[in-house]
Structures are given as C-alpha cells and as structure tokens.
C-alpha cells in the first residue's frame, strides 16, 4: 500500500475516525461532512465534528473517505466458498443436481470449516461485518460443530442458520442431537453469534414442514426459507406458513421472487422481511429480483450474496446489481405501456440502507447497521487515496453504490475491534486458510474423479441457433450475389481444411 504504516491496532484501545464523510444511517438519514466517529469498547460513543477522544485513542485519518456501518448479509451459503467460482456458468437446476443430489454429501466437517473460514475472511475484508451463514450442508452434528468453530475463529458477527439438504426438515429438526447442539452452542455465545433454522417449504398440502416450524418455535429461533424460487417453492408454501401461524416478523424470506401479490400481502401483513440476492436471481433464475414488487407492498428488504460458488461475496456488488435490476424493471414496465420514467423511485440511499439497517432489522438487531451513540461498533471506512475513482466525493450514497468496491475498504471494526487496517486484514494467516481450502478441493476432486469434476464446472451449452437475418445477403457495396458469396465461403472452408 502507498499509505504509511501505522502501528498495529491494540485491543481495547478506543478508536477515533477523523474528518470523514459519515453515513450515520440514523432514522433521519443524517450525513455529516468532515466529522468524527468515536468508538469506546464495543460501542459507538459519539459522532460529530472535532470530537474529544480519550487518552491513548487510536486515530484513523478518514479524510476523503466515507465512514459507514458494517454491512450485513442475510443469506450466504458460506460452506460453498471452498468451491469459489466453480459454478459460474450453472443454472439453478445444475446447482441443485450438484449439491443436493450428487456431490453435497462428499463434504466432510473439515470441508465445511474450510469454506466457512474463507467466506468469513472474505466478508470482513469487504466490510461485511455480519453474515447469516445459511448452512444447509450440515449432514451431521460434527459438520455443525466444525461450521461454528470456523466462524468463531474469524472475528466477525455471524448467525448460523442451521440446515441440512440431505434430510427432510421435519426429520433433521426432530433429531435430539441437533436440538442439543443448538441449545449448547447458543448458551453464552454472546452477541457475536446467533442462530436461525433454515429450510424450504415445498407447498405439499399436508404441510409436513409444520413439525420443523414447531421445533424452531420451541427453541425460540427464527426461520429463514428460500421462498418464491421458480420451479422449487411457490405461493402454496407462503399460504401454508401464513395459515398455520408461522409467518412472523422474524421470518426471513430469501429471494421471494416468483410470488403472486397475495403472497406479498401475507408477508407484509405478518411483518416478515425479504432477503434479495440480485446477482443470484439474475443468473440462476429464481425469478426477477423482486425489489420493485416488494417495495410496492411495503415489505422490509435486506441484501445477500447467496453463494460464492457462483457470485461475488461483497455487498457493493449487491447494491449495484439491485439498483440496476430495479431500475431496469421500472423502465421496462413503463415502456410496455408507452410511458417514460422521469423520476427514479429507487435511490442509492435505499440500497445502502438495505445493506446496513435492512440487514439489522431482518435480524431483530436495532443496535447494528447504524452509527449512532450506543450502537455496536461495527464500522467501515471506505477510502482509497491511490484510486482515481475516489474523488470528487459529491454524493456519498451514490459513491458507495456505484463507485466504491471491496478494494476501497480501508478499515473495518467489529464490536470495536480493528479487524482490517490500511487495506489489510489484521492478524490473519491467509496461507494457512489457503492450504485448508486446497485440501478440500483436492478431496472433492479425487472423490468425484477428474472427468466428473471437469463436467461439473463446464455444463453443456443449450443448442442455440442464430436467427435468420433478412439483411444478411444484401451487399450494399458491390454486385456480389448470394451465390457468389456462398462460393467464396466454400473456398474459404477448403483452405481451412
Ligand atoms: Zn440460497
């Protein structure tokens, strides 16, 4: 880095960010210019101009930068990060076949741990200080222990959403060992670790998932569910949840993309929230990214990245993709009616709010997602003096949503602790994590066999025909006839041979 080295951050020392543009994300949406943020212990102590800092406070120069709350991802399958990028060209069907039917069982507890540790570091590095680990690869309690141990080895804030795609939800939630695990690991875990129950509702009229909801209720844990996923979950699931009283304010509906207005009404009326994974919905095909419908129903939104087996793991991408998808749809719908959109409904401020306060609300945490006195000190400084894209800093929300990227994350605090400083993660042995992930990749590759491994990464292309083009053979430059061109093409092919 081009910036001067500062002393390594010391635990327990107050931290003061000096002279930044501060997105407080408070109820009034206050933005302060040339302001300071003071962190004492695990809390925001003060926000404002020229703050007095306690003796020995560590100063962070935030000049020309943006100080904002740590971002919150409400749905990420962290165990899949060990397969980063492998499924870049998958459809949702190919993903289901690969993980649910064919290869998900090959993951050992250490493989889940490897993915989780890498995902946790990736998140922190990108200023994502809270992640819901939608952990549906927990085929045994040993897998779950490994998943939580890995999360707790990286100093971020996590919610383990316990799931298991290898068994029906009413089966694995009935397992006394699973229930005992949840009771044991949540006891004394502190507020850096929370739990949810993660499963999907198929819409079977017998509603067998009822038993799983009951277990979650007994344990006092919220349910998170992939809802409105084209070809997988639909309005029936929402209706059954609602009719049986399991649609609650704590419920997080992931995607909620292929649903009718009736389902959105049921979600809105019961106070639930939707976790939108725009990059995912755009390429996997759960349905059109639903913010344009969800906001019309007054349903709270949070953002998520879903999985790094396909997509990126930072919320700058999520904010940008979500703004683009929402605005595309707004224009598209207007053009169908011959109208022109002259005022955009979704603002940069909205997506920044969804990435921070929206996530906090979905998790029932009003002490996160804002920089206000008393809130938890999860803080991100976006600042990159070496980048020509860092100035002028005119519209701070627009800057975060459209100009900034993960490499611009300069400093990150979680619970008052400096975990990234001067663009570098603090105290992380990335080489060790790399070895761990390489061991997982080697295991999977050997277990699957090289051919199956390669085919999995390179799915077959659909047959595609280029449309007939009526202008194709009209040569406006000469008298060349169609037949003459065909002859020339044949000659060309014979040379190739
Ligand atoms: Zn998902």
TrEMBL record:
Transmembrane segments: none
Gene3D superfamilies tied to this protein: Metal-dependent hydrolases (3.20.20.140), Urease, subunit C, domain 1 (2.30.40.10)
Record's protein name: Amidohydrolase family protein
Boundaries of every Amidohydrolase-related domain copy: 66-419
InterPro entries reported for this sequence: Amidohydro-rel (IPR006680), Metal-dep_hydrolase_composite (IPR011059), Metal_Hydrolase (IPR032466), MTA/SAH_deaminase (IPR050287)
Pfam families attached to this UniProt entry: Amidohydro_1
PANTHER family with a match to the protein in the record: AMIDOHYDROLASE-RELATED DOMAIN-CONTAINING PROTEIN, AMINOHYDROLASE SSNA-RELATED
Keywords, sorted A to Z: Hydrolase
């Amino acid at each position: 880095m081009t910036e001067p080295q500062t002393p390594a951050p010391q635990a327990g020392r107050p931290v003061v960010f000096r002279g930044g543009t501060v997105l407080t994300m408070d109820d009034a949406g206050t933005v302060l210019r040339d302001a300071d943020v003071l962190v004492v212990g695990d809390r925001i102590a003060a926000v404002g101009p020229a703050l007095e800092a306690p003796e020995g406070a560590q100063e962070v120069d935030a000049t020309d930068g943006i100080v904002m709350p740590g971002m919150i991802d409400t749905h990420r399958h962290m165990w899949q990060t060990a397969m980063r990028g492998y499924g870049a060209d998958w459809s949702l069907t190919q993903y289901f076949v690969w993980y649910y039917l064919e290869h998900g069982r090959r993951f050992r507890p250490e493989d889940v741990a490897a993915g989780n540790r890498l995902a946790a570091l990736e998140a922190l590095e990108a200023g994502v200080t809270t992640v819901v680990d939608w952990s549906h690869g927990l085929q045994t309690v040993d897998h779950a222990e490994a998943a939580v141990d890995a999360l707790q080895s990286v100093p971020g804030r996590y919610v383990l959403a316990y799931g298991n795609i290898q068994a029906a939800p009413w089966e694995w939630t009935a397992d006394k060992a699973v229930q005992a695990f949840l009771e044991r690991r949540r006891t004394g875990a502190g507020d850096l670790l929370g739990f949810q129950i993660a499963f999907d509702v198929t819409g079977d009229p017998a509603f067998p998932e009822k038993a799983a909801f009951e277990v979650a209720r007994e344990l006092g844990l919220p349910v998170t569910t992939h809802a409105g996923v084209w070809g997988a979950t639909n309005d029936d699931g929402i209706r059954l949840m609602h009719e049986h009283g399991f649609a609650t304010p704590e419920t997080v509906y992931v995607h909620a993309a292929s649903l009718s207005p009736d389902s959105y009404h049921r979600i809105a009326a019961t106070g639930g929230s939707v976790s939108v994974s725009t990059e995912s919905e755009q390429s996997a095909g759960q349905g059109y990214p639903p913010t344009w419908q969800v906001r019309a129903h007054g349903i709270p939104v949070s953002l998520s990245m879903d999985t790094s087996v396909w997509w990126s793991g930072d919320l700058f991408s999520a904010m940008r993709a979500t703004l683009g998808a929402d605005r595309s749809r707004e224009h598209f719908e207007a053009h169908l009616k011959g109208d022109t959109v002259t005022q955009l409904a979704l603002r940069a401020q909205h997506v920044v709010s969804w990435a921070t306060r929206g996530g906090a609300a979905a998790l029932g945490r009003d002490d996160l997602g804002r920089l206000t006195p008393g809130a938890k000190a999860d803080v991100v400084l976006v600042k990159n003096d070496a980048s020509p894209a860092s100035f002028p800093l005119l519209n701070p929300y627009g800057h975060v949503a459209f100009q900034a990227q993960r490499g611009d994350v300069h400093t990150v605090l979680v619970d008052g602790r400096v975990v990234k400083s001067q663009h570098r993660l603090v105290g992380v042995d990335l080489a060790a994590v790399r070895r761990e992930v390489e061991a997982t990749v080697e295991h999977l590759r050997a277990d699957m066999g090289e051919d199956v491994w390669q085919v999995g990464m390179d799915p077959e292309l659909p047959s595609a025909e280029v449309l007939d083009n009526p202008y194709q053979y009209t040569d406006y430059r000469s008298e060349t006839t169609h037949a003459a061109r065909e002859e020339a093409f044949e000659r060309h092919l014979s040379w190739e041979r």
